[in-house]
Sequence to fold (297 residues):
Amino acid sequence: MPLCLNKIQIMVEYSFSRLCFKADVIEPLNDDDIFAVHTPDGTFQMTKADFYRVFPNVVASKSYRDSGIYHMSHPPRKALQFLTGTTGFLKETPVKSLPKKDLIGDEIREKIKEIASLWKGSEHNPYIGNDVLESWEQVINEWIEDEEMPLIIRKDANKLKGQSFIHPSKREIIVSDNTFSIWVCGRVMNNETYTLKQLKEMLFNNEIPMVFMQTEDVKNKGKYTRPLGGFSLPDWKVCHIDPVGFNSNKSIEELDIVAIKEHFKKLASPYNMFVLPKEIGDLGEIQIFIDEQRRKK
Fold:
């Protein structure tokens, strides 16, 4: 239930040992919804729109997008405008805001957007036909609905990649790193399409790569151990448009099966992917650039 103090409606609040932004708490909010973070330094209170405007570096960071959490050892100066000065209760009067300092500027943002648009329409950007995209979209949806098909997730991949688990819903879950997405993207770039029956046979014959490389640990503990090998894309970085991370510290068994299905869809759907030459791959970490790469269905 939202907390309402002095006509300020707090939709959600949490405590942490330092200023910390949790994606699973913030992302479901509307832009005007307020959240509060209680820390030893005081309570930081802001809207989701404030967070996106003042902390674009956090929103675009790999930690926030993939791990679902971003925290700071010391609150930066720009965060002080949101400090209420208490350590658990909101003050009756709002704190006077410090002058907002934009370290990037609209001109640079527009230039990044222009570069993003140039790349999207560039002759060097691999062209993917709508028929190929739609074929993969359909087969991914069929995969999700087929209870015999394991769902693939990217979670705790350093420790669990290649391993298989049975979820309480009875659905088999496979842990991969970004290897599965790279494999899908490579097949799409080659204009290859498959039926669900073909993919099922390939998966159960261990023909679909699930790990970047086959280490001893993968050999000893894994069930789906095919390495990426010749399916790698050495010249390209595969990027996701909507973040793939679960934004949760729950174990695989504790995750809701609906959330797992949604995760798999974002991990596997070519509509949620784009590629960049590796020499400019870091552009794929900038949200302004990412947003321009969305394809129309």
